């Protein structure tokens, strides 16, 4: 049976930890110049509705390092669901490539793509989930903290797709998470319910608050993202007003643990959700986090294709 990764809920705790172990091993091999062409002869088809720096470069470079090949399919190349139906695109790609990664707007589309695909489909981002980012985040946290279980992550800002995946991923591996959002910008109720169900099994704690200071209190990790995501430009003025008290700055960091780390999935709007002195400061692990997209995704590809 073909295994897809559409959300973090498609993975078990043991599978997540196995991917992180593999990622650490592949990262070490790369740093030591040791070849690791585990996917030689394999082809990755990459569908993009949304432009991206990190997703394209990390998947394409990672596939090359694994001995495989990646094909970039721009929005104009496919026009998914318009020029050709989603099922027909899935059926065609399944005859040519070994795995598909799609970065889309609507989550329903990637679900449909996976339904009709006979090869693995990986969610490179949708409006609801971003599991590849969460795998990178967990890898980065584990590198800097030595563990995941029992740590506290504070999410400050919009209850968006990155927040959704982080909620699910953290609660699967036993990491506590406190989410601070303005009223009306909370994660979806079904995501929160699933996270709380996960937490009952893993022993993690889930907190939802409107107070950034409460979320950051005693945190090991502080995480933020843009206030206005791609496709939300018409809401920009309203969102800027709603999130003005949710900036990650030096004052907010004082409430966290002295050795806390700061994360951002990028791109960042400096001076909005995060200040220059924080993103460029000693607590920031943002660039490690960005690098780890490649290592985590390589491990994911290996786990799904071998």
TrEMBL record:
It holds the Pfam family OTCace. It catalyses: carbamoyl phosphate + L-ornithine = L-citrulline + phosphate + H(+). SUPFAM superfamilies: Aspartate/ornithine carbamoyltransferase. Residues 149-303 form the Aspartate/ornithine carbamoyltransferase Asp/Orn-binding domain. GO terms for biological process: citrulline biosynthetic process; L-arginine biosynthetic process via ornithine. The keyword Transferase applies. Its EC number is 2.1.3.3. Keywords: Transferase. One of its GO terms (molecular function) is amino acid binding. It is an enzyme of class 2 (transferase). Residues 3-143 form the Aspartate/ornithine carbamoyltransferase carbamoyl-P binding domain. PANTHER family: ORNITHINE CARBAMOYLTRANSFERASE, MITOCHONDRIAL, ORNITHINE TRANSCARBAMYLASE, MITOCHONDRIAL. HAMAP family: OTCase. Belongs to the aspartate/ornithine carbamoyltransferase superfamily. OTCase family. This is ornithine carbamoyltransferase. It comes from marine sediment metagenome.
């Amino acid at each position: 049976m073909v295994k897809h990764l559409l959300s973090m809920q498609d993975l078990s705790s043991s599978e997540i930890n196995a991917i992180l172990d593999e990622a650490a091993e592949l990262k070490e091999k790369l740093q030591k110049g040791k070849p690791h062409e585990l996917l030689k002869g394999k082809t990755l088809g990459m569908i993009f509705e949304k432009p991206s720096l990190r997703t394209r470069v990390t998947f394409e470079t990672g596939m090359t390092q694994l001995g495989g090949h990646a094909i970039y399919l721009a929005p104009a190349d496919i026009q998914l669901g318009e020029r050709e139906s989603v099922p027909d695109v899935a059926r065609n790609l399944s005859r040519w490539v070994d795995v598909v990664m799609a970065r889309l707007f609507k989550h329903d589309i990637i679900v449909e793509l996976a339904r009709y695909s006979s090869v693995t489909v990986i969610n490179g981002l949708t409006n609801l989930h971003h599991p590849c980012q969460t795998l990178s985040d967990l890898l980065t946290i584990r590198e800097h903290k030595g563990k995941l279980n029992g740590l506290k992550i504070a999410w400050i800002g919009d209850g968006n797709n990155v927040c959704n995946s982080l909620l699910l991923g953290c609660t699967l591996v036993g990491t506590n998470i406190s989410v601070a959002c303005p009223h009306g910008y909370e994660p979806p109720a079904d995501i929160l319910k699933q996270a709380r169900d996960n937490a009952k099994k893993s022993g993690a704690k889930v907190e939802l608050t409107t107070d950034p200071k409460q979320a950051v209190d005693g945190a090991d990790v502080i995480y933020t993202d843009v206030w206005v995501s791609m496709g939300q430009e018409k809401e920009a003025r309203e969102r800027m007003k709603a999130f003005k008290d949710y900036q990650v700055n030096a004052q907010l960091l004082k409430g966290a643990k002295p050795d806390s780390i700061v994360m951002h999935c990028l791109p960042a709007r400096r001076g909005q959700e995060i200040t220059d002195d924080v993103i460029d400061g000693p607590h920031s692990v943002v660039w490690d986090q960005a690098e780890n997209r490649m290592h985590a995704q390589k491990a994911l590809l290996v786990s799904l294709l071998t």
